[in-house]
Amino acid sequence: MNISELLKAEEGKTLEFKQDISSPRNLLKTLVAFANTAGGKIIIGVEDKTREPVGINNPLDEEERLCNLIADSISPRLVPNVEMTTVEGRTLLAVEVFLSNSRPHFIRSEGPETGVYVRLGSTNRQADRELIAELHRSVEGVSFDELPMPELSNGDLDLIAVQEVFGTSRKLDDKALLTLKVLVRHQNKLMPTKGGILLFGKKRTNHFSDAWIQCGRFFGTEKIDIFDHMEIDVPLPKAVDEVMLFFKKHAFRGADLSEVRR
Fold it and tell me: Which fold has domain 3-140?
């Protein structure tokens, strides 16, 4: 997409417009967020509201200032493409950032714990500790559910529940559980993965307090008077069946009630 077409587009996850670089912190936040999320372009020299190209004064000096700002203010080092382009006789700076393999990037003056930003829609959001850890894992190719839980052992898994899910035709020894990534070998020890505990942990909610399900049906649409409810705290594969039974129960009951009203 060329610059003229970009000027007709709305700001979003991968596009932002700046009139100038007089507010460098906001610019740096966007660059960091683009590098940490999905890449993107910043077009400098455009009036924010009208999208009219107003250009920049001394473009060569501004280009050098921008490159120095990025080099001095962002860690790990970020090297975007910075180009000058002309629209309607006015010179703009186009800065293109790609999704970085060195993420998470952060604003150096704010530090690696508070200076990490990600892109959400057309806004930049400060990443919390959990999201920063997820950015690290995404680069390393390790998913959250495959991470080990060193404080636990095989005894913390409900192996009977695991066997019920996969049936008796498959022998679920340590090798099979490793293949399923319910177990992982870490520091020469076998231990459950986070995914294994989430699915089959005997005391799942001790480790993941929100890993349970609550179903409810209310009278009317105001969600004030409850008609029926159920709290489900069984291994998650079984929980799916419990939820579906609750839905089916009230789907039929809803049909009966509507019939009575008629």
Answer: 3.30.950
